[in-house]
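Fold it.
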Amino acid sequence: MTPFVQPGKAGGPQAGMRRLVRTASDWVDLQWSFIVADLKAVAPLARGRMLDVGCGDKPYEAIFRPYVTEYIGVEHEATFAETNASKQGKPDVVYDGRTLPFPDDSFDTVMSVQVLEHTPDPQRLIDEMARVMRPDGTLILTAPFSFRLHEEPHDYFRYSPHGLRAMLARSGLEMTDLRAQGSLFSVLAHKINTFLAFRVGRLEGLSQAMGKLGHEQQAAKAPRYWAVPPVLGTMVTLSAVARVLDRVLPEPSEALSFLVVARKARGNG
C-alpha cells in the first residue's frame, strides 16, 4: 500500500519543490492515482464514526475527515513495527491480527485499503470488519488483482470481483459498488515502471523519503543516480500512454485492483 501525505504548511521554495515532486510521483504511480481518485469519489458515502483497518500512518484521513465525526486507525502490532510507516506516524489502536478490539456495532463506516492480501485469513478479517459495523453501515475496501509481490513474506492473495462479492456475502455484506482500478495498459505500464524504479533505478529510498511505500521495510540500497533521468523519463511516458490507451482500448478482464463498497443490512448485526 502506498501512503498519501498531505503537503505540509511550511512555505518557501523547498516546500514548494517537495510538493511538486510528490505530485508528479503520485501521477506516475498509476495504482496510487486510481486508488486516491476512487476514494475521493466514494468519500461522501462515509459518515459517523469511521475505522481505518490497516491504517499505516493514516494516509487517507484527510480525504474522509470532512464526512465523518471520528476517524480511528487500527494496525496489526507485530507487522506494523517492521514497516517504514512506523517512523512516520502511529495508529490509534493496535491489535493481534485476529480480533479487532472493538465491541459489535461500533462504527458507521469501515475502510480497508490494500490490506486484505496481507492477512493469511482474509475471510476472518472481513467477518471482523462486518462485526464492528453498525446495521446500515458502509464498508469501503480495495484489494489488488494484478500486482507485484510486496511486503514479503506477508503477501498471500489476489482478488477478483467475484471472489470479493462471495466473501462479503459470507459476512452478511451486500456489494453496492464495484470500481476497477486501471485496465490492461495500466497493468502493463505499472509493472514495467515498478521494474524500472526498483530494479534499475533502485528508487525505494527516495520514494520513502517522500512518504511513499510506508508499508514496506526501510530501503537498504542506495539509488543509482546515473539511472534516474532515463528511468523517470520512461516511467512518465509509459504512464501517460497507458492512461490514453486504457480509454481507447479498455479491457474489462484486466485491472490493477478493485474498489468495492458494501452495506451491512439490518438484522445482520
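Residues 228-248 form the longest helix (21 residues).
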